[in-house]
Amino acid sequence: MAKTKQIKVTLVRSPIGFQPKHQECVRGLGLKRMHHTVLLEDTPSVRGMVNKINYMVRVEKA
Description:
Blueprint lengths: L5 E6 L8 H9 L8 E5 L2 H9 L4 E5 L1
């Protein structure tokens, strides 16, 4: 069984006052509050959401 690659995504900027679609990306990634970190699979759909809100998040390899 192949191990899937994962990334750690941390919310470092508040989504308040930004575009509603960007706020939806934050919620879609599972980020609930400032400095909240989630571990996600490194898939094209997740990467797309992260790239859309790259000014709000910090991404690290897990």
